[in-house]
């Protein structure tokens, strides 16, 4: 499991040192750097995945497209390079990437593995010296195989493409491969800690059952379309109705489905990055999503989430209070726009009753501020 990420001169950060937990929530104001933390991990992932033997980092690929060097180097304090450092339970790695202004990929200028430094490496595998892949196999594997789900997930479709399962093993950044992953792995067993009782512990039935906790009455019907490399997905939201095409059932179900499929398709110690899991969800569903992610973390899967939803946060808090996840397995980070006057990232601490030790201004307090305004107790502030 990743325990720390450090960024230097990356995007809006001069220096960021961030502890990571089994479940990490990245919260805060818009344009304050939350997505940049996920993007740093995805840059490593897509380079390892798409360019196994490269000595450069791919700024643009199938998972993410960040442009050229000036788009990723901090314009105030960076010059032509940035650093990413990661620790897991046993190892620490750090990369320095350098480039010219027009570069859409950047050279690995230096890599450090457990203190052993290689300058301008001539050969790398998965962005590490070849012999380091033997000493830190978990770090390289977890980064290469992580799952990244963006906030811009695909809209409901009439049919979904079937992909070669030996090539496409994750749901894809936009959830575009979720139906394919579910089809090919429909009879695979899910992690015991995520298997809901009373339902066969195989992927299709467990995905359906978890969807029912978020959308009561939900059923799935996944069928291969004859003479095509495609599947159809039937959905129903009530036991009293038939199955309908996703385009007739609203966005909520199809926006959540990739998250549930991803969680029930990975292995212990794998990493899932999720942007805005609350998209198109009712507040009650957002709270249940927070509880679901706590259950995923309890099962041994590391979950790092960017969210703007106090309901997701409160769902996690409820899960902790219920004993479904220990408080020390949750990290909460609140991001604010960079300023010389304030700390850029604050990290409120959760206790085992679900309470938070500090509630900084701007940290999911808008409801109270609006309520106080209407009651005549507060100023007219955003």
Quick overview:
With 382 residues, this protein is of the alpha+beta class.
Structure description:
Helices cover 27% and strands 23% of the residues. It is of the alpha+beta class. The chain has two domains: 259 residues, Rossmann fold, CATH 3.40.50; 114 residues, no CATH class. The strands form three sheets. Strands 1, 2, 4, 5, 6, 7 and 8 form a seven-stranded antiparallel sheet that branches. β11 and β12 form a beta hairpin. The longest helix is centred in the N-terminal third of the chain and has 17 residues. The relative contact order is 0.13.
What's the order of the H and E elements?
A: EEEHEHEEEEHHEEHHEEHEHEHEEH
DSSP E strands, number: 16
Structural class: alpha+beta
What is the CATH third-level topology name of the largest domain? Rossmann fold
Strand content: 15-25%
Largest sheet: 7 strands, antiparallel
Taking all Cα atoms into account, the compactness measure Rg is 21 Å
Which blocks of ≥5 consecutive residues have pLDDT under 50?
Answer: none
CATH 2nd-level architecture of the largest domain: 3-Layer(aba) Sandwich
Mean pLDDT: 93
DSSP summary: helix tally = 10
**How many domain units?**
2
Q: Briefly, what CATH class of the largest domain?
A: Alpha Beta
- Distance between termini? 38 Å
Residue share in helix: 25-40%
- Give the overall shape, derived from the CA principal axes: globular
List the helices and strands and how they pair.
Layout: E1 2-10, E2 13-19, E3 23-28, H1 34-50, E4 56-58, H2 69-72, E5 81-88, E6 92-98, E7 105-113, E8 116-119, H3 132-135, H4 137-144, E9 147-149, E10 160-161, H5 178-184, H6 203-214, E11 219-224, E12 230-236, H7 251-263, E13 271-275, H8 283-298, E14 302-306, H9 310-321, E15 330-335, E16 345-346, H10 366-374
Parallel strand pairs: 3-14, 3-15, 9-13, 13-14
Antiparallel strand pairs: 1-2, 1-5, 4-7, 5-6, 6-7, 7-8, 10-12, 11-12, 15-16
Helix pairs in contact: 5-7, 6-7, 8-9
